[in-house]
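Example record

The entry below shows one chain as it appears in the dataset: sequence first, then structure tokens.
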Amino acid sequence: MTNLQGKIALVTGGSRGAGRGIALELAKAGAYVYITGRNPGTPQGAGERTLAGVLDEIHRLGGSGAAIRCDHTKDGETEAAIRQIAAEQGRLDILVNNVWGGNNLPILNDPFWEQAPEHWDNMFTAGVRAQLMTNYYAIPLMRSQRAGTGLILHTTFWDEYKYTGNFYYDLSKNALVRMAYGLSIELAADSIAVIPLSPGWMRTELVLESFGTDEAHWQEKEGLETTESTAYVGRAAAALAADPEVMTMTGIPQRVGDLAEKYGFTDIDGRKVPAFRISG
């Protein structure tokens, strides 16, 4: 699949999890992919979940890209990353706001008043605000192109506004949905689609580690039957980026499982994993 040839993409938080999956699939589809994150790694660490490791994977897949070490909680570093992309490419077609610090504390279903207030900084400073400020610096570059349709994705969680069970997580994820909605209105005249993208239960590094397994052996573990790989959300992102009618979806939350049905892609094991839904 090379339908993103000539497109320039930025995936924040691209060294692991959903960010890694999205970066690899965009690169496989032909885009030049910038990845940012706080763990640069080294060329000798190829295969590790670092920026260098993911960039090595991109190159081994025949793709092209670059890594920029960036802490998106520091506005100066975010601005510098966008400035580098502008200097090197003069454009940005696809922005994937994926940076997220919300998992630094366990996300439990305890009542709000029993949870540590530190969840706010993890989920809002290192999550919602980090994505907001990436938009702040990137949108002027995207608007300056005026050449075709642009795309901004916010990885989040959405199940028709059902409560997730964790106050801070629910508040932050819905803030991202609302951020995308507001920007979709403000950027409509620029033909830049802004879409909240909601994966299901992904087999991220943290999930696999918690089950004591890895991607090669996850099927041997009870309880992981309904999980999806991080490539699944990546294929959804690539399909949205290649859709000439993507503006018809701007501002509307999209679940990865629903997009698999719409566009006809599967997960790496050939399944179309249904859209994740909160029970009850």
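Notes for this example: The mean pLDDT is 93. The chain has eight helices and seven strands.
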